[in-house]
Amino acid sequence: MQSSLLPPAITELVSALSSLPGIGAKTARRLAFHMVDGASDKALALHQALSRVQNEMGHCSVCGFFSRPDEPCTLCSNPHRTPGQLCVVGRIQDVLAIEEAHIFHGRYHILGGYISPLNQVFPESLHIDSLIHRITDEHITDVIFAFDAISDADYTAQYLLEMIPHEVRLHRIAAGIPFGGELEYTDGITLSHAFTLKREITH
Ligand SMILES: [Zn+2]
After folding, report:
1. From the CB of residue 135, how many other CB atoms can be counted at a distance below 10 Å?
2. CATH number of the domain at 66-201, out of 1.10.1780.10, 3.40.1360.10, 1.20.1200.10, 3.40.309.10?
3. Would you tell me which of 142, 144, 162, 181 could form a disulfide with 177, CB atoms 3.0–4.6 Å apart?
4. SS3 at position 96
5. C-alpha angle 61/65/69, rounded to 5°?
6. What topology is assigned to 3-56 in CATH?
7. Each residue's pLDDT expressed in tens, for the chain with a length of 203 residues
C-alpha cells in the first residue's frame, strides 16, 4: 500500500510511530490502523499517557533516573537503600534490569551512555562530573560498574577508575555476561551471578 493513499493525519502517525526504536514500517502502519479503527479508547489512553509523560516526567538531578520535575526519584528518596554503595550503569534500562533481579540495594548513578569517541560521545557528554562529586559528598565506599560487555564500556571503566579516589573500593560485574551482551537483555539469574561474582579492580 502506498503511504500517499493515506490521509495526511494517518501518514503522520505512521511516520511518528516508525521513528521509534524497534518499530518497523509495517508494525507502525498496523498500530496506526488499530488506533484509528474502532479503538478510540486505546488511542485516547495513549494520548493521555504521552502527554502525562511529557508534562510530568523529567530526570532525577542526583542519579539520572526518571523523576517528576525538580524532585528526587523514588530510588534516591528511598531511605531504606544501603548507603555507601553506588552502582554505576550506562542507561536507565540497566537500573530496571538490576532492580528486577533483586541483587543490589544501594543507590545508582546513570552515566547516560559510554564514552565512544567514534560516535562523538566524550566524557563531558556523560554524567561523570556528578558521579565524582557524589562519591565524595555521599561518602561512597564501594562503586560497582555494572556495564554492558562491550569495548566502549571497558574504555569507560578504564577512564573512570583513574578519576575515582583510591580509598573507594571498585568492583566490576563481568562473569556470565557474554562479550557484546547488554545488561538490559541479560536474564535475572545470569545478572545475579554476575553481581555475586563481581571482582574488585585496582586503581
Ligand atoms: Zn535519583
Report:
1. 20
2. 3.40.1360.10
3. 181
4. helix
5. 50
6. Helicase, Ruva Protein; domain 3 (1.10.8)
7. 554 788 999 999 999 999 999 999 999 999 988 888 866 787 888 889 999 998 999 999 999 999 998 899 999 999 999 999 999 999 999 999 999 989 899 999 999 999 999 999 999 999 999 999 999 999 999 999 999 888 899 899 999 999 999 999 999 886 566 666 677 777 777 777 777 777 778 77
- Centre of ligand 1 from the C-alpha of residue 5, in Å: 47
Grid cell of 36 as nine digits: 484509528
Q: How far is the CA of 109 from the centre of ligand 1 (A)?
A: 8
The contacts of residue 16 (CB under 8 Å, 6+ apart) are: none
Distance 72 CA to ligand 1 centre (A): 5
Question: Could you state, in order of their start, the residue ranges of all structural domains in the chain?
Answer: 3-56, 66-201
